[in-house]
Every structure is written in structure tokens, then in C-alpha cells.
Amino acid sequence: MSDNSFTNVGFSGNNRYSSYYGPGGRLIFVDSALEAVNKGSTTIGIKTPNFAIISSQIKPTRPLVEPSEKIFSIDDHVGATGSGYIGDILQLIDEIRLHAQKHSVSFETPIEIGSLARHISSYLHTFTIYSVRPQAASILIAGKDQTGIQLYQIDPSGTYFKGSAFAIGQSSEIALEVIQQEYKENMSVEQAIQLSNNAIEKALAEKPLIATGLISLVDGKFKKLEAPIMS
């Protein structure tokens, strides 16, 4: 379904919900947003008890145009990335940062990663209630709080998941299959980065440029790795 379908939504007669729902009761808007995510950069999150990494393909751009930033620092203890429309990703990153800053100012403590995920989940869910276009982006959040290393995925519908590995974007099913086959809870940071790179490479059937961020128990600080990594 193309994005032009958004312009056809409205209320008509007594069937005010006909433009929201498709066959099987699926939300048309959300399905369209998920289609956009599935065409976005292949993006990976991997977590162990000691660290989490988030990695994303850097798509080629036109000559003389710098690629969009893919790995974002939210606060000292948390970072994020995403796949989908870059404008929507950037808006969601701003919302996550603002919520984290408000919590820090109000309570003088770093926000819990789960609380941050629930907030952006609620924020995204509000777009599914009204006749507006949902944010066409899925977000991965990685961080450390008092409960340890955390990794979350939040989809355009507002659904969120907590886990040890996620893959979103183009050919994410292939990437996730690679991770599921080779993931080990006791792997090193270097092994996790290599696994992430291999998963993205196999999903795309090419050697892409990849940006990566890391959060570990050692210092509890999220950091973007110095330079994009060629797999």
C-alpha cells in the first residue's frame, strides 16, 4: 500500500471506522507504516548480560551528500537507532531525548530504560487512535539502569518488546535468522559486532557500511564507535 492511501482516510456516514481497518481487523495505517520500516536500513540490536550493541546500515546517498546519522545518544546511559522514514526517526529520537531529560531534571536520577520504552510506546500508540499518519519508523533502544543492560524494540503501532536480539528494516527476517543461529550469551563485544555485521551483510547480499553503538556494564556509558564499520 502506497503512502498516498493516507489521503483517502476520513469519516463517512455511520461507518466511521471503515477507513481504519482492513481485512482481518488490521489497522491500515499501521500496516503502511510497517511497510515503510521494512524498506528502511537493516538495523540490529544484540544484548548480553554484560553489554548491548545497536548497529544500522548506512545507505548510499547522492554525490556530495552526507549520509544521515544512524546511531543516537539519548543520555549518558542510553542510545537508540531506528529504521523507516528518517524524518520520523529523528522526531522519535527528539521525543525520547526530551522525555529522558524531563525525568533527569524532575527526579535527579537517570531514567529507567523500560520507562523510556513505555513512554515512546504510548506516544506512538496515540497516532493509531486518530485519523492521522502514524510514525513510519521502528526504534531500538539500548541502555543500562539499576536492573542491568536492557534492549527494547518499539514498532509504529506502539507495541514494544524486550529481548536479547532484534532485527528491523530491509530483509530483517534473514538477519534475525543469522543472529538466532549464532547468538551466545557469553559472547564478547567483538563477537557481537561481527555477528551483527554478518547478519546485515547476509540480509543485503553485499558488504555495507555500518554504524554501531555500545553500552556496557564496565562504565555504563553509551558510546558511538569511532567510525562506521565495513563488514
Task: Tell me what you see in this structure.
The chain is of the alpha+beta class and 231 residues long. The chain has one domain: Aminohydrolase, N-terminal nucleophile (Ntn) domain (Glutamine Phosphoribosylpyrophosphate, subunit 1, domain 1). It is 33% helix and 26% strand. The strands form 2 sheets. Strands 1, 2, 8, 9, 10 and 11 form a 6-stranded antiparallel sheet that branches. Strands 3-4-5-6-7 form a 5-stranded antiparallel sheet. A hairpin with a 6-residue loop joins strand 9 and strand 10. Helix 4 packs antiparallel against helix 5. The protein is globular, with a radius of gyration of 18 Å. The protein starts with 27 loop residues before the first helix and ends with a strand. The N terminus is likely disordered.
Throw out a few tags for this protein.
six-stranded antiparallel β-sheet, 231 residues, single chain, Glutamine Phosphoribosylpyrophosphate, subunit 1, domain 1, alpha+beta, five-stranded antiparallel β-sheet
Uncertain segments are: 1-19
CATH topology: Glutamine Phosphoribosylpyrophosphate, subunit 1, domain 1
Task: Provide the β-strand percentage band.
Answer: 25-35%
Total count of domains: 1
Order of helices and strands: HEEEEHHEEEEHHEEE
Based on the coordinates given, report the CATH architecture.
Answer: 4-Layer Sandwich
Number of discrete helical segments: 5
CATH superfamily: Aminohydrolase, N-terminal nucleophile (Ntn) domain
Summing up helix and strand content along with how strands pair, one would put the structural category as: alpha+beta
Look at the structure and give the mean pLDDT. 86
